[in-house]
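Below is a filled-in request sheet from our internal design queue. Each sheet records the structural input a requester submitted and the sequence that came back. We keep these sheets so that new team members can see what a complete request looks like end to end.

REQUESTER: design group, bay 2
PRIORITY: normal
MODE: inverse folding
CHAIN LENGTH: 342
BACKBONE (tokenized):
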């Protein structure tokens, strides 16, 4: 039987890996793409933008490719991976179920309906994002409202309400895809549902970062309370924790980060399910360490998937397809490792 942090003898070594790893992968990803540029020129360009004392002249197409296209996409991939991972880990602690993901309460289905409706109405990309974000919040809000009418286990009722709401909005998405123009609207809806960061821009960062940062920050501040809540309802109440209030806070924060992620990237599965398991193998089940580990590993994982998606073939592979193909075998492997190390 092995203790937390099994793969690293020193907690300091593990911390360095989790902190330095994302930085190195972000820098490496800036060098990858169809636009070929000298790594030295890219680094000089980044330094010149961060340091006003460093002067340099760079080609206009280099600045456009790196600062307007590649950098926003890299940062969004990291943020989306972090958001989905920490939401999945928080939900697994809240519901005490390792098979729970960040989409358990119907946020992805609600956001998908909002985006599909926006595409049907020929709305701008910003309006589509706003509608996706808004309907993601509405879906979870409806799930929370349903729990008010039942006196049984609040956790179980919330999960069942999420399943119901998710199925309802999934049916609405199917209705829209069925009635959409097969030549103009349907391809755009299907591509959005597959998940992609190909249209990433600085505008997406401005829209998605605030709710992501708010949700992640609050979850990090209360992560020790998730440990108490994962012990069970009665045990948490006996320790003086207001379980009802804490449950609402966790759900609201997870909804914020998940909705913000889906509205800018589409539906990307398996991140909120696989990454918490992998992080748990590395650092153990303590949420005080688990959530920071999920942020690091989730950001790196989705960024690597996006690097593969945009460079593996001449035409870009939708992220949702790639994470599903790779995520399912990885999850099966992690289950065997988790069972052996428990």
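RETURNED SEQUENCE:
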């Amino acid at each position: 039987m092995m203790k937390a942090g099994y793969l690293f003898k020193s907690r300091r070594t593990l911390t360095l890996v989790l902190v330095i790893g994302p930085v190195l992968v972000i820098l490496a990803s800036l060098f990858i793409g169809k636009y070929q540029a000298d790594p030295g020129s890219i680094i000089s360009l980044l330094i010149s933008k961060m340091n006003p004392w460093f002067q340099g002249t760079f080609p206009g197409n280099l600045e456009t490719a790196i600062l307007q296209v590649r950098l926003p996409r890299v940062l969004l991939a990291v943020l989306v991976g972090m958001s989905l991972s920490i939401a999945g880990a928080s939900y697994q602690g809240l519901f005490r179920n390792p098979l729970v993901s960040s989409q358990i309460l119907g946020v992805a289905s609600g956001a998908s309906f909002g985006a599909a409706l926006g595409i049907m109405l020929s709305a701008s990309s910003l309006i589509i994002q706003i509608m996706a974000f808004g309907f993601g919040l509405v879906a979870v809000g409806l799930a929370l409202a349903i729990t008010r009418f039942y006196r049984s286990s609040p956790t179980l009722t919330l999960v069942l309400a999420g399943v119901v709401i998710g199925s309802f909005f999934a049916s609405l998405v199917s209705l829209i895809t069925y009635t959409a123009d097969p030549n103009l609207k349907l391809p755009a809806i299907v591509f959005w549902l597959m998940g992609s960061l190909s249209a990433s821009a600085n505008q997406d960062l401005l829209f998605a970062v605030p709710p992501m940062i708010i949700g992640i920050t609050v979850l990090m501040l209360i992560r020790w309370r998730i440990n108490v809540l994962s012990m069970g309802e009665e045990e948490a109440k006996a320790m003086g924790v207001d379980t009802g209030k804490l449950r609402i806070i966790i759900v609201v924060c997870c909804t914020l980060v998940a909705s913000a992620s889906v509205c800018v990237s589409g539906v990307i599965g398996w991140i909120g399910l696989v990454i918490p398991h992998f992080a748990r193998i590395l650092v153990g089940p303590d949420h005080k360490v688990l959530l920071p580990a999920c942020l690091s590993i989730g950001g790196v994982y989705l960024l690597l998937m996006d690097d593969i998606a945009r460079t593996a073939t001449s035409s870009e592979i939708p992220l949702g397809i790639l994470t599903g193909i790779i995520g399912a075998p990885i999850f099966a492997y992690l289950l065997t490792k988790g069972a052996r190390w428990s």
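SHEET NOTES:
- The longest helix spans residues 60-95.
- The chain is about 75% helix and 0% strand.
FILED BY: M.R.
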